[in-house]
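Moderator note: this is an archived Q&A kept for reference. The question asked for a predicted structure of one protein chain; the sequence and the answer are reproduced below.
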Amino acid sequence: MLNIALFGPPGAGKGTQSEFLIKKYNLFYISTGDILRKEISEKTKLGLEAQSIIASGGLVSDEIIVQIIEKTITDNPDSNGFLFDGFPRTYIQAYILEGLMIKLHTKLNCLISLDVPVEESVKRLLHRGKTSGRSDDNETVIRNRLKEYNEKTLPVLQFYKDKGIMIEVEGMQTIEKVNIEITNIIKEELSKSLFNVVVFGYPGSGRGSQGKALAKKFGLEYVATGPMLEHEIEENSEIGKKITELYENGQLVPDDIVVRLIEKKIEKSKNVKGFIFKGFPRTLVQSYILDGLLQKHGSSISMILEIEVPTLELISRLDARSKTDNCMPYDNSTSKIVKRLQEHEKKTVPVIEKYNQLHGVKIIDGMGKFDDVFERLSAEIENGLKSMR
């Protein structure tokens, strides 16, 4: 996810640059004024509360603003990220945004500040006033707006400068040159982002073989709980013995074992482009764990894929595998196969539903030849990678 705050004094050209960024990177535009008006027009609970405050001559509180921003973000899971214009306006709001980003398992990638001298801003706004018909485009009001911007916003810029994510762009250049400079900044930011994919699907859907092939094609690190656990079994470690016993009873391996192995894998994988997760998260608890693990390493989930295969086909595939050398201990009888499918429906389907609400889940038809399914999956990943460039 790409989250950007665009700053600049009135007349700096934020509107023009915002349009460019929204189109190029499929970002959702968040202007506090716009989203407040939307909530008010739709007569939502927060909108009515804000309208009441405005009607009485008061300022809408940060508490209401942050709730509306959070609602806007969660209501738009298909966006590649968000462009903040006019927020945060104050030092306190900068801290509020930090907390909100943490809650939503994401972060502000950068703050881009368009640097334009005061007199140039005045000149541009006076020129705009000749055609805009806006009553606030007169010199007295303009200078007051610029004074307020400098008093309230400069501390915000310092806040993000101290974090190392504030970048200034010379706003006196042509629109095209400012575009190019901003594009280069974002390219640099995107190059730091890991591309993390979670592959879901019922047992027998082919997520393992497809996940490995996708990881190889796109240069991603394949993270599967199965091979990690099998390694422990082969080593005949104490953990391995416990895992074997759980498999034989058709049970899932507890989180405290799985999480330690996954975190070890992530920490060992240096200089990777991203990860493909298969077999994790299986439960809602594990989904929160994965979000936390990635957040700890300054990352988040980029894409979620679900390979869809009819139930009868799944049983047929798993039954056929049980008669080969690739038979798993948990697939060696029909009753165990059915139990695994039921377990997935009970524990993992709610995880997929949660992610679909937050990020959107791409459903991939898992029927047909391996190469056909692989091509469908590859197309989705290629689209995801393009949106990061």
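Archived answer notes: The radius of gyration is 26 Å.
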